[in-house]
Amino acid sequence: MGHITEYEQQSACAEVQGRCLVSAWTNGRKSMNFKEIRKQYRLLRCGILTCLAGLAVSTGSPLSAQTVTGYILDEMPDYDWYRGCFGTATGNFFGFWDRHGMPDFYTGPVNSGLAPLLDDPALLMRKFWASDLHDRDYWVLYETSANDPYFSNGWEEHEPDCIGDFIGLNQKKWTDLNGECAGNIDGYSFVYWDADGDARMNYSPPNGITDIQSGLRNFVHHCGYEADVMTQYTDFNPNSAPGKGFTYTDVMHEIHNGRPVMVFLQQFNTFSRPIGTMPNANPLIHGINIFGYELLDWGDGLTEAFVFVRTSWASGMERLAWDSGSWLAGLPARGVIAMHPHPKITHMNVADEAITLDWEGPSSKLVNLLSGKTNVVSRYVVEHSSTMVPGSFSTVAGPTTSRQATIPLQGAAVGFYRVSLLEESAP
Length: 427
Known about the structure:
This protein is α+β, with helices and mostly antiparallel strands.
């Protein structure tokens, strides 16, 4: 979607099914630091309790005790819209990983090569997802149906050098994107979903087409890493078969493993629209990142599920209900894009009958919004085997949140070591 330029701070209380909830808040055009987040969160809880108290007085009946659980990932960037919502969303996404253990994602001039939390004054960070060559070859005007400049001018495309190049952003190259639309018009990108709501892991579209999922993997590889990338409809998408789709439990699992989740907003059954000379251009979409959640338990089996998101409009932290209603810009959540980065051993040293391994990989921090405590949730083990036979590796170090381990040399003349990232369970 286009760049929304202004938000108003708001807080509202409304009765829903005999209960009260507090609406999402926005905080103008800047991100909140942790103290501000804690203050807003406490005000939110206060609003909930105030509503409950008022309801109890008005009805004359007591309400059962409620439980509030809230977590966010620390240091999630919040850049403003530029050259497409998924350009910005992927910029925030990889900016997060650049700050959390995988420093080769962003190596540009801003902030000495460490992805900043906010736009830099010169707006150079935007080249992370839309470089000068990207603009030269692909960009004309937001939502134009015109051909890409490289095609119109007959010049050769540049080699991919930014995130947008890899995910097909703004590239009007394809006449058939999974039978849904042609594209991508300027400002847009596409995902090849499984039509029944099953998860698609490491999928690549046919005929050399690039979508967001395949593009993310290729960009990760381009930066010297590897990752598994998954796409899936949300469980409340009416096109998901019963029992399928990405669930709120899946959201909690990803957050407790230190991984933000991108969300693809689109009307569930609107797959194209006429624009200019194109009868079936990309439909309206928007891209955001989930980086936290809040679960309210009112007792008697009644719960309310929310997620904390970066909107791709530099609007701070916003709180949205996990349901089939409108999330932002009048669009529901069609599906999600999740990524599981792999650790990469960067250095090995043998000395004094010991081997020291260094690696890069996720080093995410999870903030408990109730207690204020922050914990590193990315934990590793080092495993050893004298052969490469599957199932023969055994743990020799860890679990550890460090990305270095020193292990006594094993007895075999030949040995193999690997670093594995553990999966944590949500509480």
